[in-house]
Amino acid sequence: MPLYLNDDQAMLRDTARSFMAGEGAIRTQLRHWRDKGCVDGFGHALWKQFAEMGFTGILIAEADGGLGLGHVEAGIVLEEIGRNLTPSPFLVSAVAFVEALKGTALRDRWYPGILAGDTVAALAIDEGPKHRPDDIEMRADRSGNGFSLTGRKQFVVQGASADVTLVAAQTDEGLTLFAVGKDAKGLEVEGVRLADSSIGARMTFESVEVDADAVVGDVGGGETVLARALNAGRTGAAAELVGVGAASMEMTVDYLKQRRQFGRLIGEFQALQFRAAHLYSELEIARAATLKAQQLLDEGSEDAEAMVSVAKAKAGRVSQLAVQEGVQMHGGIGMTDEYDIGLYMKRDRVLNELFGDPAYHADRLARMKGY
Amino acid sequence: MPDLETFRAETRAWLEANCPAEMRQPIRGESDACWGGRNPSFKSEAQKQWMEVMAARGWTVPDWPKDYGGGGLSAAETKILKQEMARIGARNPLMSFGISMLGPALLKYGNEEQKKRFLREIALGQIRWCQGYSEPGAGSDLASLQTKCEEVFDENGGSHWLVNGQKVWTSYADKADWIFCLVRTDPAAPKHKGISFLLFDMASDGVSTKPILLISGNSPFCETFFDDVKVPKDQLVGELNKGWDVAKYLLGHEREMISGMGLGGQGESLGAALAESLADDPILRADIARFDVDAMAFRAMSERFIDELKAGQAHPAQPSMMKYAGTELNKARHELVMAAGGSNALEWESDRSKEGKAAREWLRTKANSIEGGTSEVQLGIIAKRILELPGA
To answer: Does A190 lie in the same domain as A259?
Structure first.
């Protein structure tokens, strides 16, 4: 399979690009909901539109009512989301959560709502300020017909508006994932606005009782389910980071062609040209790594895991470079709320932390490679 | 697709049957490669055999047309061949500037007679080529080159070219059979418009070479002198005074070739290769883990670039990006290899260090971001041609 988009994928990109640049634009979505102080941080009407466009069914099998497409296609939509900073539950709900449920009995329960753009799903994994999925301490003990969950989670993206949250906890049999409904008794949700004005949540579980059928996959089989969710989430976040980085670079290069100082366009200065060219080069590489990870996941290759970490780490570092160069090259106006470049910087920071930062993924890669 | 799967199966079986075990070991530097040539020096019988069986199949240049000694494979088939070779660790059977640089330029700009005459010899590894580009006064500003080429008429009414001047940094000029050379054919024209692209035999009267001792202690590069060198008229490629087009096109291919150094041979993880040295050195381990992220990402970029190139989707200036990124990566790799090796890697002549192999390679890589256009030249090209920044 060649490492570029095929014709169908290029068509999807064109569709997603014009949709996101129109309906999902910064002014109509991000700034609109932020300035209103929206408690969800995104618009439910747009989520419905995602469903009408078919985006929410990309990773759902045709037999389950979806489009039966892959991570490449999900990434195409996410890159456009990244370009426009479009706030939506797409990454966690339609990508990570959908992948987690793949092949499990809970599909019928949750897929229809996601396909329709009615249901919002979240992932509760992190328990401290950094992503450490190997050190999950939250407990799920057998109780009656099911389990009793006790512990704390944070950085639960869209957790405040989620209808269902995928929760990782330890049982006597090992790590197990649960799909916990929003009305569960003993679940306390504190919505928190993050730097990029998206809404995350801190969740406190105080003996939250769930039925045995809330278990996703097998009891003690959480590693597999979590791996599916994280591979999808990380690769998806990498694609969104590529979009954030690409839009930042394009905006900055445009600015270099307009802004005059010392009697000439600042884009004529070699000091800035070389930095812009270096950024272009890095971004091309990040895009290739991300596409490679998506293709390997879609092929079910055993090399996928390593490439997922490469993609998340590389896209994260490159997007970080893009937003930092972006603000610096914009000069003073780059520091103003009125200009969009600063919004990209904030989104980049959040996406870099989500599902593991570049340091986490470089370390993970090193372990996989035996050092 | 079933056809491709058949091709893969057949290719796999053929490689298994024909690639000697010795040729499935990683190449240890340029001196360990097979270069072919008029008087080839093979390191082993296996090396000779491997080059010959591959050449007989056209697989030293799998995607060139069969008429010119190539394999006539499609882009997809070529990719499969590369994958299957990588699978068993098969070496490149023939390292050749003819293949990586001159061939593509001849395919595009050569006339039919030149293609017939030169391409098959290249494919078969019979002629070793060198590149006459840089001059003492023309480095990054290559188009200011001064090597003079004029038409001289014989007594019988015929004519030939007469070449006078000097080239520098000519890789393996002392071992090459022929040279592809940029010469000034119109000194009065603007600098880009008076250059022609000429081929000639290094055994011609008036050609001499002098190896240059480099910081690595090796001498892969030479000074090359031309003193009244006579060259037949039909050895000029493309149009007279339009050699700069050929030169630029060839440079794109040279940059592609050099960018391949970013891949760093076989084995995708540097950290895995150096694991023992990293156990008690967490900061170096972290540096190398970050490097591995960059290297594996670049590997994906390289695959994407080749796929896009074959499909005609790559930006024409993309080789500059590849060259820049690949060479900077290769330099970083060798800094890390030296750091992991510690004082062992500093030994310059001992048997233990294989005569300072690591140190010499580390120093060799410093040329990567200079040869074929410096990193700064590449960044300038990206800024101008891809980002379209003003006045670049």
So the answer is: no
How far is B321 from B333, CA to CA, in rounded Å?
18
The alpha carbon of residue A3 and the mean position of all alpha carbons in its chain are separated, in whole angstroms, by 22
Number of domains in chain B: 3
Domain-embedded: residue A1:
no
What pLDDT score was predicted for residue B27?
A: 81
Find the CB nearest B289 among A268, A281, A363: A363
Sign for the pseudo-dihedral over CA of A340, A341, A346, A352: positive
Q: What's B181's domain CATH number?
A: 2.40.110.10
The residues facing B211 across adjacent strands are B222
Identity of the residue in B274, B279, B387 whose CB atom sits nearest the CB atom of A277: B387
B262 lies in which domain range?
246-386
Q: Do A257 and B389 touch (CB under 8 A)?
A: yes
Q: What is the ipTM of this complex?
A: 0.97
B6, part of any domain: yes
Cβ distance A310 to B386 less than 8 Å, yes or no, reads no
- Reported as a single tens digit per residue, the pLDDT across B76-117 is 999 999 989 988 999 999 999 999 999 999 999 999 999 999
By annotation, the residues of B acting in catalysis are 254
pTM above 0.80, yes or no: yes
The string of pLDDT tens digits covering residues B283-316 is 999 999 999 999 999 999 999 999 999 899 999 9
Of the residues A269, A281, A368, the best mutation for testing chain B's interface (the one with the most B CB atoms within 10 Å of its CB) is A281
- What value, to the nearest 5°, has the Cα angle with vertex A368 and ends A365 and A371? 85
Q: How far is B91 from chain A (nearest CA, A)?
A: 23
Domain boundary among B107, B140, B165: B107
B252 and B382 share a domain? yes
Q: Give every CB contact of residue A69 below 8 A, 6+ residues apart in sequence.
A: A58, A59
CB pairs under 8 A between A and B: 147
Residue numbers of the domain that contains A175: 124-219
Mark yes or no for CB contact A366/B285 under 8 Å. Answer: yes
| Domain end point (choices A219, A242, A265) | A219
Write the pLDDT tens digit of every residue in B119-168. Answer: 999 999 999 999 999 999 999 999 999 999 999 998 888 999 999 999 99
Q: What is the mean pLDDT of chain B?
A: 94
